[in-house]
Target: ATP-dependent dethiobiotin synthetase BioD
Amino acid sequence: MSSNSGSTSNAPLPHQNGLFITGTDTGVGKTIVTAALAAVLRAERPGLSKEVGVWKPVQSGERMGAGRTDAERLVQAAGLTDAPEELCAYTFEAPLAPAVAARLAGVRLTIEAVIASAIPLFQRYGTMLVEGAGGAAVPLTEKELVADLIVKLGMPALIVARSGLGTVNHTLLTIDKLRSMGVTIAGVVLNDGAATATSSCDDPSVNGNAALIEQYSGIPVWGTLPRGLPEHSPAQLAERTRKALDLSALKAALPMAPAAGGADWS
Model:
């Protein structure tokens, strides 16, 4: 359990420039997608690494220090200098939705406290990538879903989904949920390396799912991340990501607003 007591704060974040990475389910690859985007942005040109930060509001299912939490994986895969505890102030060992895991741990989790925990990161970095917990409709607190946090932050959302059979239904439902709450959806990334992913040899739907998602939602699919992405080399991860995803869509969704220096994509 995190040492954070869950005390509330209404302190506003310094800015809202960023992208919220959510998913159609747990285990779809939000962490590797977030790390991949961070690695690309931080490698874009010298100095940019000081302007792009990563935040994991809440994580559950592992104990910090074992090297298996999302925050620890993000630090390693994206080449971050922040400590995992800085990326995520709320860690719960129970493999449950954050609201349930927090209740079992005796922590009163509120959306105000979750947001307040990120103030130092938002002060440090002018652009933030935020990785959610589970899917968009996962219970975050006793009253709010992950989608409510996206609304509070005022950021566009990127949806991560499996590449195989069933993903069209899951993705369209996630899109409908976010749209109903007024969230801007920047795009979809399919992940061939998701926990239950199947290859195109075993699952012919893999080859057509991206087109179907675009056809029925009007939301662009940025591409499909391949299996076996390196989590121990940020440079290699960035290179593989550049080849797999449409980075012009990323740049359009995430205009750079650095904390200092006036840098942008140009």
Remarks:
- Residues 3-9, 257-263 have pLDDT under 50 and may be disordered.
